[in-house]
Amino acid sequence: MKKTIFLVLVILSSTMVVPPYRHYASAPPPPSVSGLWDFTLNVNRMVGRDGFVRKQLRTFEWVIRLKQEGGKVTGDLAGGRGSRGESVCADADVRGSLNGSRIEFVVSYQGACCSQEQEKFVGEIDDEGRRITGKLEPVDVPRTSCDLAYADVTATKR
User: Fold this and answer.
1) Where are the alpha helices (DSSP H) in 16-121?
2) Which residue in 11, 14, 87, 115 has a CA-CA distance of 20 to 30 Å to 57?
3) What is the DSSP letter of 116?
């Protein structure tokens, strides 16, 4: 009887199929956003010091230098221009975060141009890390004579 049970166990264990060990790699880390980016702001509304939001269609181009350390994003507004030939406030710091493909940052203007005004950007970076799309809007009603934009934004890494 013991021999029969042993033989049955040997036969059963030899017919069991054990799947091969598989190594499942974790998802690759998101691409770095560090570098120079060309931002196009398609403005659809502006808000002024009076707090009234006005429909206004225009385009601005920004060059932003970003630096990424883990999930932290910093940088500065290196320059830009408007569709009407006007210059933009180029003295601004950028501070925010990257979580997966979601990027958020606040543009804080410095110096004489729009000093201490802020606009917030929220967007998504593509899988290759070469393109960002999102929305820009004022953090608050401007306290200075500057007008701040509500815009649909696209950006391309240089």
Assistant:
1) none
2) 115
3) T
d(C-alpha 87, C-alpha 131), whole Å: 24
Q: What is the pLDDT of residue 91?
A: 87
Instruction: Tell me how far apart the alpha carbons of residues 102 and 120 are, in angstroms, rounded to a whole number.
Output: 13
**Quick one: which H or E segment has residue 44?**
strand 35-47
CB under 8 Å to 32, separation ≥6 — which residues? 68, 129
Query: For residues 67 and 150, what is the distance between their CA atoms, to the nearest angstrom?
Result: 24
Domains of the chain, earliest start first = 35-157 (2.40.128.120)
Tokens describing residue 143? 């306290």
Q: Which of 157, 34, 133, 146 is nearest to 92 (CA)?
A: 146
pTM of the model: 0.79
pLDDT at 14 over 60: no
Whole-number Å distance between alpha carbons of 155 and 98: 15
CB distance 12 to 25 below 8 Å = no
CB 149 within 8 A of CB 138: yes
CA–CA gap between residue 86 and residue 46 (Å, rounded): 16
